[in-house]
Amino acid sequence: GAGVSQTPSNKVTEKGKYVELRCDPISGHTALYWYRQSLGQGPEFLIYFQGTGAADDSGLPNDRFFAVRPEGSVSTLKIQRTERGDSAVYLCASSRGSGSYEQYFGPGTRLTVT
Amino acid sequence: AQTVTQSQPEMSVQEAETVTLSCTYDTSENNYYLFWYKQPPSRQMILVIRQEAYKQQNATENRFSVNFQKAAKSFSLKISDSQLGDTAMYFCAFGAQGGSEKLVFGKGTKLTVNP
Q: Are B44 and B89 in contact (CB under 8 A)?
């Protein structure tokens, strides 16, 4: 079946603007994760959804970052008042749920803040 | 908090030879999983192999195998018969059992397979 998809593939925005990044998980996967990967680094956890609720948002760097998953499938990561330091690749992953321990990643969205 | 360390920023190997990538981790958890992910230039993270901490037997997947030393908190990846398509970034990752099961990644090792 289809894998995890993310749109857009690339996003360039100006400092101070608002952006939304979308993730479509694998059908039937109840768990969804967002990670951020800065240049030369491994991915860093941002937030975890189990179904519709954010079960762990301990990785969100500040209150400019917010994510939703209203119907338990598609998720949107929202960044307000973007800063140049937000430039990174944002990765989404999904898994079958608690106890499955295998996360399947999307291709990521490269965000560039100018 | 868990940490994952990959001490080799870059490695190279000749096609058809064997290479070993190193990974160490620090945790106070007793139940956890360890993973190796491959990230080619396309950015897609691909799961290569996983190891359950409670299993003593080292995991293998075709040309990929691990050497898991729980007491030493070491988890190395061996790639046999290296192929040009193995060229990629390789990330070691830790996932604690229970809770959010979020992954903690190392900084990665850039592997180049030379013809």
A: no
Q: CA A100 to CA B22: how far, in whole Å?
A: 25
Sequential pLDDT tens for chain A (114 residues) = 589 999 999 999 999 999 999 999 999 999 999 999 999 999 999 999 999 999 999 999 999 999 999 999 999 999 999 999 999 999 999 998 766 678 999 999 999 999
| Best of A37, A47, A95 to mutate (most B CBs within 10 Å, chain B) | A37
A5 → chain B, closest CA residue: B44
